[in-house]
């Protein structure tokens, strides 16, 4: 009996040890197209709530695996999740308990302002916009300050001021105050040993004819989108018709720089759209979609944004869209749609009307309504620019 109890104890101990080894923390690196940190494991049709995209090759302390996600220890009191397919193994055995920052520099070139934070390692971060006054805030995790100066050059045009706080023992926060109330976009990534915030400036001339406008016709190809209730109108077909009507109207109004994510019924993955748009560097993005609901009585138009700095654009467009005698479905913020996620340029998702509502669908398939929507979006863009002058 004693031998049996001893054997059971040995087996149990071995199982515990094996389990501990299974979840022993290890170091990975972010990889793939637009790796993103998520706040938790919650899901909806757009995916879980995202903390934000991070650069590739960022060192991540992996603590556990849950439902196809890795649990990442960002700092002592902060965790996040990342899809397993966006992490590769690394030869680094472990990270230091904390790293230190170096100097910070702020300078501009002919087109952008840049904030450079010298780092010992490529560590995870999150960023967000603030308004009234307009700011960009960057939290870097696993870092303690060894920054003894911030050099700010007169070549800066959009950046008003830069400062930092050690908000926690291992969280370093950089705050960037902007000159203008409107956020025009920024990107964050590593260049060598520096974390770089690249900030777009407000265009010198706030005239729609001088801006580069991107138009995204939602869905396409194998991604058909929603379907109408009576005429069975296809979302992918009609978003393209609305996009072409908007393109035509903008051209007629003298807008010379217009880019389209698609001009035919082609499949274009949303992440690939984002990467392509980042290369094209538009001043504004308008993404066109058609809504749907299980409740056929729900109808109306709506606009969406993720980042608070881009809300003014969406409210101006919604106000004009309501002149089409559509019901109001609202202005929706912190929206987790892929093309609302980039911080690189002001963007607005316009859900023109509901395919699942018979009255709305009747409007959607009307060619004149396509032109009317184009007119209202143009007016919304123009209104938005007027508030910035």
Automatic annotation (TrEMBL):
CDD domains annotated for this entry? MurNAc-LAA
Q: What is this protein called?
A: N-acetylmuramoyl-L-alanine amidase
Q: Which GO CC annotations does the UniProt entry carry? A: outer membrane-bounded periplasmic space
Task: Report the EC number(s), separated by commas if there are several.
Answer: 3.5.1.28
Listed A to Z, the keywords are: Hydrolase, Signal
The record, for SUPFAM superfamilies, names: Zn-dependent exopeptidases
Keyword Signal on entry = yes
- One Pfam match, given by its short name, reads Amidase_3
